[in-house]
Amino acid sequence: MGKAELSTVVSVRKVQKYYSGDILKAVEEIYVAAGGPDPKGKKVLLKPNILADLAPERAVTTHPEVFRACAQYFQSRGATVLAGDSPALHTSGFKAKICGIGPVCEELGVKWIDFTEDPIHRKGFKFARILDEVDMVISLPKLKTHELAYFTGATKNLFGLIPGLSKALLHAKYPNRNAFSAMIVDVMEAIKPTFAIMDAIIGMEGAGPQNGQPKHIGLILGSCNLIALDIVASQIAGYNPMDIPMLSHAVKNGIQVKDINDIIVEGGSIKKFKVKNFKRIPIDRRYNLIYMGVRYERMRRRFDRRPIFDHDKCILCEKCIQICKAEALEIKDGKIHIHDPNCIRCYCCHEVCPVNAIEIKRKVFG
Ligand code: SF4
Ligand code: SF4
After folding, report:
1. What is the pLDDT of residues 18-40, one digit of tens each?
2. CB under 6 Å to ligand 1: residues?
């Protein structure tokens, strides 16, 4: 017998505010309508997006009320619920406090897992050991823009199962948008997630994933099919999903979705859910036009958007230096200095800057 085809149903519910009762009801409906498997007696790992431990109002992290509803739902269906994440610059012992997820774990008896302890290797990637010990992985992303990937949702959120700074090393190993995006799809395939529930009540637009602005969308989405979910979510945000290399790579290779027209949206139409005036990351179409080779890489680095530092805003915390595995950054004369030929345009520095002192923009050649 051949492998069963993954469902392409994406369930969507309108939820305007972070009211726990409304969210729990939406999660219950979504999980059933999108064909989530019975979690009774299973060990379930919830993977929220905690890029940095920041207040929920910043819309950087999965909201604690969405996390709470998901944990309560799986517990009520007889699962043992665990949770964890591993932001790039947090080392062992990290516990999510400010974003509100840690306190919810304590309240509900959800065990918090340290992803940095004794990692395992699977399909060429280093992963948190817990992956070998759970029956189900549930991705709990936030709908956000992403300077490198253009969009981050259910699929990209799983990158956090790779512990700490190992993620930055992968940025250096897959140094352009297409290679990085294909690698993210490989990571998802290695993890084999069971389901995803996306917090799109308030998402992030503009310079995501950390320094954009909160944007009210008023939705929760769920699916067994993470690529289908991200395709629908990106369309709701106004993207053409085939402009997002991660999603176009998956569809071209028949990973989870063979044709975007096969996706079934349950609960309404994309047209009805579409959010107006969502500020997206501008798409660089040259990625699809120029062949991938050394010449391409030189061209890309020359013309692609690059990090520009605002020295007045910079507090010299050195987080950008710690995360830059291309060794493009140093402090010179009391300021952050970029050695441009080294920069691979991974934008990790922008992602971790706590004071929004790095803008990603095209350099004007004079
Ligand atoms: S991360 Fe931001 S604030 Fe910290 S040193 Fe770099 S530019 Fe300055
Ligand atoms: S300077 Fe920033 S964008 Fe350039 S390689 Fe380093 S982390 Fe990546």
Report:
1. 999 999 999 999 999 999 999 99
2. 309, 314-320, 336, 353, 355, 357-358
